[in-house]
Amino acid sequence: MKQPTTADSNKDPAMNLAFDQSADTGPAVVCLPMFSMSRAATAAALSPALAGAGLREIYLDLPGHGDTPAHCPPTSQATLDTVCAWLDQHLDAPALLAGSSYGAYLAAGIARQRPDLVRGLLLVCPGVTIARHTRTLPADPPLDAPTGWLDDAPAALHEHLDAALGHRTPAVVATVLAALNSGGPGDPAFQEKLQTGPGYALPDEDADVVFDGPVSVITGRQDRIIGYADQFRAMRHYPRGTYTVIDTAGHYLPYEQPALLRSLTQDWLHRTRD
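^ thats the sequence. predicted structure below, dont judge the formating
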Protein backbone atom coordinates (compact mmCIF):
# COMPACT_ATOMS: atom_id res chain seq x y z
CA MET A 1 0.00 0.00 0.00
CA LYS A 2 1.29 3.43 -0.90
CA GLN A 3 1.45 5.66 2.15
CA PRO A 4 0.95 9.43 1.85
CA THR A 5 3.84 11.59 2.94
CA THR A 6 3.46 14.80 4.88
CA ALA A 7 3.79 17.97 2.84
CA ASP A 8 6.76 20.19 3.69
CA SER A 9 4.76 22.85 5.51
CA ASN A 10 1.76 20.64 6.43
CA LYS A 11 -0.14 23.89 6.97
CA ASP A 12 -1.45 26.14 4.28
CA PRO A 13 -0.41 29.67 5.36
CA ALA A 14 -3.59 31.26 4.04
CA MET A 15 -6.30 28.65 4.55
CA ASN A 16 -4.53 26.72 7.33
CA LEU A 17 -5.81 23.32 6.23
CA ALA A 18 -3.61 20.45 7.37
CA PHE A 19 -2.89 18.02 4.56
CA ASP A 20 -0.78 15.05 3.50
CA GLN A 21 0.13 14.18 -0.04
CA SER A 22 1.78 11.26 -1.79
CA ALA A 23 5.08 11.56 -3.61
CA ASP A 24 3.56 10.97 -7.04
CA THR A 25 3.57 13.87 -9.48
CA GLY A 26 0.57 12.87 -11.59
CA PRO A 27 -2.85 14.55 -11.65
CA ALA A 28 -4.26 15.41 -8.23
CA VAL A 29 -7.00 13.52 -6.44
CA VAL A 30 -8.17 15.42 -3.35
CA CYS A 31 -9.78 13.24 -0.69
CA LEU A 32 -12.23 14.63 1.87
CA PRO A 33 -13.04 12.89 5.18
CA MET A 34 -16.16 11.60 6.85
CA PHE A 35 -17.64 13.89 9.48
CA SER A 36 -15.45 14.08 12.62
CA MET A 37 -12.72 11.96 11.04
CA SER A 38 -9.17 12.89 10.07
CA ARG A 39 -7.08 12.81 6.93
CA ALA A 40 -5.29 9.75 8.37
CA ALA A 41 -8.60 7.88 8.46
CA THR A 42 -9.35 9.01 4.89
CA ALA A 43 -5.97 7.73 3.71
CA ALA A 44 -6.60 4.36 5.38
CA ALA A 45 -9.94 4.19 3.55
CA LEU A 46 -9.02 5.43 0.07
CA SER A 47 -5.29 5.01 -0.46
CA PRO A 48 -5.55 1.22 -1.05
CA ALA A 49 -8.25 1.87 -3.65
CA LEU A 50 -6.13 4.49 -5.45
CA ALA A 51 -2.81 2.64 -5.23
CA GLY A 52 -0.85 2.26 -8.44
CA ALA A 53 -2.74 4.93 -10.37
CA GLY A 54 0.16 7.40 -10.34
CA LEU A 55 -2.01 10.15 -8.92
CA ARG A 56 -0.91 12.80 -6.44
CA GLU A 57 -3.13 11.79 -3.55
CA ILE A 58 -3.98 14.70 -1.25
CA TYR A 59 -5.76 14.17 2.06
CA LEU A 60 -7.23 17.22 3.79
CA ASP A 61 -8.36 17.84 7.35
CA LEU A 62 -11.48 20.01 7.24
CA PRO A 63 -11.81 22.99 9.60
CA GLY A 64 -12.28 21.69 13.14
CA HIS A 65 -11.20 18.19 12.09
CA GLY A 66 -7.91 16.38 12.67
CA ASP A 67 -5.09 18.91 12.90
CA THR A 68 -6.94 21.84 11.27
CA PRO A 69 -8.21 24.49 13.69
CA ALA A 70 -11.80 25.69 13.57
CA HIS A 71 -11.03 28.93 11.72
CA CYS A 72 -14.31 29.40 9.85
CA PRO A 73 -17.97 29.70 10.86
CA PRO A 74 -19.55 26.34 11.81
CA THR A 75 -21.50 25.90 8.57
CA SER A 76 -21.13 23.54 5.65
CA GLN A 77 -21.00 26.46 3.20
CA ALA A 78 -18.07 28.03 5.07
CA THR A 79 -16.34 24.65 5.11
CA LEU A 80 -16.93 24.20 1.38
CA ASP A 81 -15.66 27.73 0.66
CA THR A 82 -12.51 26.99 2.65
CA VAL A 83 -11.83 23.83 0.64
CA CYS A 84 -12.44 25.72 -2.63
CA ALA A 85 -10.01 28.44 -1.56
CA TRP A 86 -7.42 25.76 -0.81
CA LEU A 87 -7.93 24.21 -4.24
CA ASP A 88 -7.66 27.63 -5.91
CA GLN A 89 -4.38 28.34 -4.14
CA HIS A 90 -2.67 24.94 -4.34
CA LEU A 91 -3.72 23.42 -7.66
CA ASP A 92 -3.25 24.77 -11.18
CA ALA A 93 -5.74 22.40 -12.85
CA PRO A 94 -9.11 20.86 -12.02
CA ALA A 95 -8.77 17.94 -9.61
CA LEU A 96 -10.47 14.64 -9.07
CA LEU A 97 -12.46 14.80 -5.82
CA ALA A 98 -13.08 11.76 -3.63
CA GLY A 99 -14.93 11.60 -0.35
CA SER A 100 -16.98 9.47 2.01
CA SER A 101 -20.21 10.49 3.74
CA TYR A 102 -19.90 14.20 4.68
CA GLY A 103 -16.75 14.51 2.58
CA ALA A 104 -18.70 13.21 -0.42
CA TYR A 105 -21.53 15.64 0.39
CA LEU A 106 -19.03 18.49 0.22
CA ALA A 107 -17.40 17.13 -2.96
CA ALA A 108 -20.78 17.04 -4.71
CA GLY A 109 -21.43 20.58 -3.50
CA ILE A 110 -18.12 21.78 -4.93
CA ALA A 111 -19.03 20.21 -8.28
CA ARG A 112 -22.32 22.14 -8.23
CA GLN A 113 -20.89 25.48 -7.14
CA ARG A 114 -17.38 25.40 -8.65
CA PRO A 115 -17.37 22.87 -11.51
CA ASP A 116 -14.26 24.59 -12.87
CA LEU A 117 -12.32 22.98 -9.99
CA VAL A 118 -13.50 19.40 -10.59
CA ARG A 119 -12.56 16.75 -13.19
CA GLY A 120 -14.51 13.89 -11.66
CA LEU A 121 -16.18 12.65 -8.48
CA LEU A 122 -15.78 9.48 -6.41
CA LEU A 123 -18.66 9.57 -3.90
CA VAL A 124 -18.64 6.78 -1.32
CA CYS A 125 -21.75 6.53 0.88
CA PRO A 126 -22.46 10.17 0.07
CA GLY A 127 -24.81 12.31 2.06
CA VAL A 128 -27.57 13.68 -0.20
CA THR A 129 -29.94 15.32 2.27
CA ILE A 130 -28.30 16.39 5.49
CA ALA A 131 -31.37 16.39 7.76
CA ARG A 132 -31.77 12.92 9.27
CA HIS A 133 -35.58 12.90 9.06
CA THR A 134 -35.44 13.42 5.27
CA ARG A 135 -33.21 10.42 4.52
CA THR A 136 -34.61 7.22 3.00
CA LEU A 137 -33.15 4.41 5.09
CA PRO A 138 -33.37 0.63 4.57
CA ALA A 139 -36.33 -0.95 6.34
CA ASP A 140 -34.78 -4.42 6.39
CA PRO A 141 -33.48 -5.81 9.70
CA PRO A 142 -29.69 -5.82 10.11
CA LEU A 143 -27.73 -8.84 8.97
CA ASP A 144 -26.77 -11.53 11.44
CA ALA A 145 -23.57 -11.04 13.40
CA PRO A 146 -21.48 -13.33 15.60
CA THR A 147 -22.14 -13.17 19.31
CA GLY A 148 -20.06 -10.49 20.99
CA TRP A 149 -19.09 -8.77 17.75
CA LEU A 150 -19.30 -5.34 19.43
CA ASP A 151 -17.63 -6.32 22.70
CA ASP A 152 -14.41 -4.43 21.95
CA ALA A 153 -16.20 -1.21 21.01
CA PRO A 154 -16.99 1.47 23.60
CA ALA A 155 -20.56 1.14 24.82
CA ALA A 156 -21.30 4.68 23.62
CA LEU A 157 -20.66 3.54 20.03
CA HIS A 158 -22.71 0.33 20.06
CA GLU A 159 -25.92 1.88 18.75
CA HIS A 160 -24.07 3.80 16.03
CA LEU A 161 -22.05 0.82 14.82
CA ASP A 162 -25.11 -1.43 14.91
CA ALA A 163 -26.83 0.98 12.50
CA ALA A 164 -23.76 1.78 10.43
CA LEU A 165 -22.20 -1.59 9.69
CA GLY A 166 -23.36 -4.16 7.16
CA HIS A 167 -20.27 -6.37 7.42
CA ARG A 168 -20.70 -7.15 11.10
CA THR A 169 -17.57 -8.84 12.44
CA PRO A 170 -15.11 -8.09 15.26
CA ALA A 171 -12.36 -7.55 12.65
CA VAL A 172 -14.36 -4.86 10.85
CA VAL A 173 -15.23 -3.21 14.16
CA ALA A 174 -11.52 -3.10 15.06
CA THR A 175 -10.67 -1.54 11.70
CA VAL A 176 -13.35 1.14 12.07
CA LEU A 177 -12.32 1.93 15.65
CA ALA A 178 -8.70 2.33 14.54
CA ALA A 179 -9.84 4.79 11.86
CA LEU A 180 -12.03 6.73 14.29
CA ASN A 181 -9.09 7.09 16.68
CA SER A 182 -6.46 8.02 14.08
CA GLY A 183 -5.10 11.47 13.27
CA GLY A 184 -5.44 14.73 15.13
CA PRO A 185 -8.05 15.37 17.82
CA GLY A 186 -10.22 17.87 15.95
CA ASP A 187 -12.49 20.34 17.72
CA PRO A 188 -15.55 18.51 19.12
CA ALA A 189 -17.28 21.75 20.15
CA PHE A 190 -17.01 23.12 16.59
CA GLN A 191 -18.22 19.82 15.14
CA GLU A 192 -21.24 19.86 17.45
CA LYS A 193 -22.12 23.42 16.42
CA LEU A 194 -21.76 22.48 12.76
CA GLN A 195 -23.85 19.32 12.96
CA THR A 196 -26.65 20.80 15.06
CA GLY A 197 -26.75 24.32 13.64
CA PRO A 198 -28.95 25.76 10.90
CA GLY A 199 -26.00 25.88 8.51
CA TYR A 200 -25.34 22.13 8.40
CA ALA A 201 -27.17 21.80 5.08
CA LEU A 202 -25.64 23.50 2.06
CA PRO A 203 -28.00 26.21 0.78
CA ASP A 204 -28.08 24.62 -2.69
CA GLU A 205 -28.54 21.04 -1.45
CA ASP A 206 -31.71 20.63 -3.53
CA ALA A 207 -30.47 22.46 -6.62
CA ASP A 208 -31.11 20.65 -9.89
CA VAL A 209 -27.59 21.15 -11.25
CA VAL A 210 -25.91 18.75 -13.68
CA PHE A 211 -22.21 17.83 -13.42
CA ASP A 212 -21.07 16.18 -16.65
CA GLY A 213 -17.71 14.77 -15.53
CA PRO A 214 -17.12 11.07 -14.75
CA VAL A 215 -18.76 10.11 -11.45
CA SER A 216 -18.89 6.94 -9.40
CA VAL A 217 -21.44 6.69 -6.57
CA ILE A 218 -20.85 3.69 -4.30
CA THR A 219 -23.32 2.83 -1.54
CA GLY A 220 -23.88 0.14 1.09
CA ARG A 221 -27.04 -1.99 0.97
CA GLN A 222 -27.14 -2.13 4.80
CA ASP A 223 -26.24 1.52 5.42
CA ARG A 224 -28.79 2.65 8.02
CA ILE A 225 -27.10 6.02 8.48
CA ILE A 226 -27.67 7.60 5.05
CA GLY A 227 -29.14 4.74 3.03
CA TYR A 228 -28.74 4.06 -0.69
CA ALA A 229 -32.04 5.09 -2.33
CA ASP A 230 -31.58 8.88 -2.18
CA GLN A 231 -28.20 8.41 -3.86
CA PHE A 232 -29.80 6.56 -6.78
CA ARG A 233 -32.36 9.33 -7.27
CA ALA A 234 -29.52 11.86 -7.32
CA MET A 235 -27.96 10.14 -10.35
CA ARG A 236 -30.04 12.42 -12.60
CA HIS A 237 -27.39 15.05 -11.82
CA TYR A 238 -24.61 12.87 -13.27
CA PRO A 239 -25.05 11.95 -16.94
CA ARG A 240 -21.65 10.21 -16.85
CA GLY A 241 -22.31 8.56 -13.51
CA THR A 242 -22.10 4.94 -12.41
CA TYR A 243 -24.13 3.84 -9.38
CA THR A 244 -23.34 0.75 -7.28
CA VAL A 245 -24.96 -0.66 -4.17
CA ILE A 246 -22.91 -3.31 -2.35
CA ASP A 247 -24.42 -6.06 -0.25
CA THR A 248 -22.87 -6.74 3.18
CA ALA A 249 -21.70 -3.13 3.39
CA GLY A 250 -22.84 -0.20 5.45
CA HIS A 251 -21.78 3.37 6.09
CA TYR A 252 -18.12 2.44 6.68
CA LEU A 253 -17.95 0.70 3.31
CA PRO A 254 -14.25 1.47 2.63
CA TYR A 255 -13.29 -0.46 5.76
CA GLU A 256 -15.93 -3.16 5.26
CA GLN A 257 -15.39 -4.03 1.57
CA PRO A 258 -11.94 -2.69 0.53
CA ALA A 259 -11.48 -5.09 -2.40
CA LEU A 260 -14.78 -4.12 -4.01
CA LEU A 261 -14.05 -0.45 -3.40
CA ARG A 262 -10.70 -0.79 -5.17
CA SER A 263 -12.28 -2.50 -8.18
CA LEU A 264 -14.93 0.17 -8.55
CA THR A 265 -12.42 2.97 -7.99
CA GLN A 266 -10.15 1.60 -10.70
CA ASP A 267 -13.10 1.58 -13.11
CA TRP A 268 -13.81 5.22 -12.23
CA LEU A 269 -10.17 6.16 -12.77
CA HIS A 270 -10.22 4.49 -16.17
CA ARG A 271 -13.22 6.63 -17.13
CA THR A 272 -11.49 9.81 -15.95
CA ARG A 273 -8.81 9.19 -18.58
CA ASP A 274 -11.24 8.92 -21.52
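The chain has one domain: 5-272.
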